[in-house]
Design brief:
The protein has 122 residues and is an alpha+beta fold. It contains 4 helices and 3 strands; from the N terminus they run H-E-E-H-H-E-H. Helix 1 packs across helix 3.
C-alpha cells in the first residue's frame, strides 16, 4: 500500500518526467512520436522510482526506451532541478515500457476477429 507521501511524489515525478521527455522528443526531431508516462511508483524509502512509459507508435517503444535509459543521468539531473524545493533527494529512475494498452488491443482484436473462441463454430 502506497503512503500519501509516495503518491504525492509519484504525481510530481510523473508530471515533470512527461514534460521533460516530450520536450526531449521535440528537440530530438522525433516527429509524430508521443511519449507518455502511464505510471510512476516510488519505493517506500523514496530511493527508486519505477517509471512506466507508453510510446506511440508502439513499434518505436524499444528504441525510445533505449535512448531514455542511455540518458537517465541527464533526466535525473533535470528532474532534480525542477523538484529541488519539493524533494531533498531525487530517486533513481528505472524505465519500463507499459504494454498494457497493446495487451488490451490484442484482447479487443481477438474478441472482434476470427480468433474469438466464443464465436468459433463447432
Amino acid at each position: 500500500m502506497e503512503s500519501n507521501r509516495q503518491k504525492k511524489i509519484s504525481k510530481i515525478l510523473q508530471q515533470d518526467l512527461a514534460d521533460i521527455l516530450q520536450g526531449a522528443a521535440r528537440k530530438g526531431g522525433l516527429r509524430g512520436i508521443i511519449i507518455s508516462i502511464s505510471k510512476v511508483s516510488v519505493t517506500t524509502d523514496l530511493s527508486i522510482a519505477k517509471v512506466y512509459l507508453s510510446v506511440f507508435p508502439s513499434d518505436k517503444g524499444e528504441e525510445i526506451l533505449a535512448g531514455i535509459k542511455a540518458n537517465t543521468p541527464l533526466i535525473k539531473h533535470e528532474v532534480s532541478q525542477r523538484t529541488k524545493h519539493q524533494l531533498r533527494r531525487t530517486p533513481n529512475f528505472m524505465f519500463f515500457i507499459d504494454d498494457s494498452l497493446d495487451y488490451i488491443e490484442k484482447i479487443d482484436q481477438s474478441l472482434k476477429g476470427v480468433d474469438n473462441p466464443i464465436n468459433s463454430s463447432k
